[in-house]
Amino acid sequence: MGVGILGAGPVTQAIHLPSLARLGEILTVRHIMDVDPAVAESVAARVGATHSTSIDALLGDPAVDIVAICSPHQFHAEQVIAACRAGKKAVLCEKPFAMNAEEAAQIAAVSAETGVPIIVGAMHTFDPGWLAAQENWDDLPETAHTIRSSIVLPPNARFEDFATEIITRPAGGTPDYTDPEVIKGALRGGVMGLAIHDLPLIRRFTPDFKDVEVLEARHVRPFGYVISLRTPTRTIELRAAMNNTWKPEWSFEAFSDHAALRIDFTPSYVQAGSAVATFTRGSQTTVHGPFEHNGYEGEWRELAALAAGTKQPPSAQTLIDDLTFALDIADATVANVESQHAVAEGAHA
Amino acid sequence: MSATDGIKQYTVRATPEAQEAGAVALAVASLPESFGPAAGTNQSDVHVISGQPGWAADAAEAITAGARAVIVVNPAPEGVGTLAEAAARHNTVVVLDQRWASNPAIPAAEDAVRSMSGRAALLDTVATAAVGTDSGELFADHLAAVVRIAGPLANLRHLSRGPHGYTTTAVLANGAPVAIQGVVSNARPAALDLRLLTDDGGVSVTLPEPVAAWPATVKVTGPHGELLLPTIYESAHRATWRRLKRHLDAGTSPSDLHRFAALTESITALS
Ligand SMILES: NC(=O)c1ccc[n+]([C@@H]2O[C@H](COP(=O)([O-])OP(=O)(O)OC[C@H]3O[C@@H](n4cnc5c(N)ncnc54)[C@H](O)[C@@H]3O)[C@@H](O)[C@H]2O)c1
Asked: To probe the interface with B, which of A137, A138, A145 has the most B CB atoms within 10 Å?
């Protein structure tokens, strides 16, 4: 089965090409497209694929059965729709799926009309550690009352460099943390860029996810967040800190009165095997994993199965619900910061 | 007091509730040269009482009745001004046996955290306790340990509280966010987890329940790698008794009540 990739930045170079290299028996990269011709050419050369700078060229290439969308997020919706309309066999859209609910609804409609299966690159949902947890969690998603997502990450570059040799890398700056707009932007980016990996997992444990409210949202320097959420039946805590540490930690936890699940994920970018899922029920502990592959490879295995028609795609509603859950939290986070700022201004007045 | 080969041994009597909550028999048996049960109805040197609400008055009474020392097991937040005065007047040593704050790993954890707290980016802490634990009590035990380790917190405020726990917010002196969560569940052994993150590492502390001598862990992470500080296989109960012995022998008075007054004040200001 042939793969075409739109956007050949660090994610394509460090995540997808190494994953695909492990799956050579079922998937072959045929076409790499990037708006930067030098990037397209050099990345394509690494895998012996055709390169181009236009989406039409890639979608018109009959060697491409599966399309992966790895461009910056603002292009995702239109590119997913174009790939479906081109009659491809399956589409992988890097997270986030879309930037607003209207875009998500449009994508769902096109997917339903064309019958092209779409998955979103929320890799943890394809991680064998998560899948093993799913098989063993009994009624925990219904009975959990407390959920935590906790992320400590070294700079992306540390892991990109373990995974590949990157040829393009955006320059960073030093933000002005006294500017409330900077904080709002950082928190929205934190939810839509980082928390979004685990929000589908959290949603699985939150039946009343539509009633989520933000109790407090705070920025963590240089980049991160502490966001306290609540629904009528759940307490949800989101924590992230991206800094200069060498020590990554990425965990998901859910507690009911009698059972707890903790999943420790491996860092992004590298192929460091699956997450490990640990259940504790009083004095009994059961551990699932680690398994040999991670969620990135899981995504590609899933895509191959979807394209071959041996597996049913996830319902579009699931993807829409995951996205609206994230958007609701991002909006409420920004609103919370605005109200804190208003209170602070009031106090100064 | 009785003399055994020139070593001072202090006699002990505990109320039944304190006996159980403080595992007093075990603690005393594990310090057999220093402490021993009081014989018959004799007055004892050390009175052990449980920290149910109203304990400060019980402790003051024990002091008036002639106790040389009082141990309070799991003290609930309440005013200790009168008690502190009585203790000072009678030269009585009052020590508090707190679930987590009395753990013998606390001084090392405190050093590690405070040496980094100027560079703190986030302090995140979770306490878990068994179903049936009152979340107010859990919070008091939790906060006592956090403040011991990290120092005073500003803007302390509950975001939510209920039978399953609490979510509480505060900030450190440098403005870094502090997130304090309590989780009531039987899923895991009760414990306190605290992590301070800096830009290039941090400190992570786990404190166990005092029912056994399982050790706390204190790990310091930095560019050099990660260092596990030496583990101490001693429960918070026994560490409290050893501390008491030191004060009795040296004739010094501990800062327990002074600290507890500040804790009570923070908790009262919250509700
Ligand atoms: N799953 C994960 O672990 C993970 C991690 C980081 C980022 N991401 C997501 O992956 C995507 C790509 O991330 P990145 O860090 O490589 O991004 P990037 O912005 O650094 O690189 C994207 C590449 O796309 C190219 N490009 C720009 N406009 C384009 C267009 N209209 N069509 C095609 N290509 C275009 C750019 O030239 C660049 O080479 C983003 O959506 C991001 O949110 C996923």
From this structure: A145
Does ligand 1 lie within 6 Å of residue A121's CB atom?
Answer: yes
The conformation of residue B124, written as its DSSP 8-state character, comes to: E
- DSSP secondary structure letter of residue A194: I
**A168 Cβ closer than 6 Å to some ligand 1 atom:** yes
Q: What is the dihedral of CA A208, A314, A268, B179, to 10 degrees?
A: 0
ipTM of the complex: 0.93
- According to CATH, the topology of domain A125-314+322-344 is Dihydrodipicolinate Reductase; domain 2 (3.30.360)
- Which of B58, B92, B55 is closest to B77 using CA atoms? B55
- Residue B3: what pLDDT? 45
Which CATH code for domain A2-121? Answer: 3.40.50.720
Mean pLDDT per 10-residue section of chain A, whose length is 349 residues: 96 94 95 97 97 97 97 93 95 90 88 91 95 98 98 80 63 78 91 94 97 97 95 98 93 98 94 96 96 96 95 86 94 94 73
CA atoms within 13 A on the CB side of B174: 16
Distance in Å, CA A11 to ligand 1 centroid = 6
Mutate to test the interface with B, among A140, A205, A215, A226 (most CBs of B within 10 A): A226
Q: How many CB atoms lie within 10 A of CB B64?
A: 11
Residues of chain B found within 8 Å of residue A257, distances taken between Cβ atoms: 131, 184-187
pLDDT of A349: 56
B81-128 confidence digits (pLDDT tens): 999 999 999 999 999 999 999 999 999 999 999 999 999 999 999 999
**What residues of B are in contact with residue A239 (Cβ under 8 Å)?**
122, 124, 179
Average pLDDT over residues B169-178: 97
For the stretch A308-331, pLDDT in tens is: 999 988 888 888 899 999 999 999
Interchain CB distance below 8 Å, A215 and B159: yes
CATH code (residue B146): 3.30.360.10
Across the strands, what pairs with B36?
A: B11
Question: Structural domain tally of chain B?
Answer: 2
Distance from the B237 Cα atom to the nearest Cα atom in chain A, whole angstroms: 23
Residues B195 and B256 in one domain: no
Question: Whole domain around residue B77: which residue ranges?
Answer: 2-100+237-270
Same domain for B9 and B55? yes
Q: What token pair was written down for B99? A: 């679930």
Cα A84 to averaged position of ligand 1 atoms, centre (Å): 20
Average predicted confidence (pLDDT) for chain A: 92
- B159 part of contact set with chain A, CB < 8 Å: yes
Measured distance CA(A171)–CA(A188) in Å, rounded: 20
Q: What are phi and psi of A326, to 5 degrees?
A: -65, -45
CB A16 less than 6 A from any atom of ligand 1: no
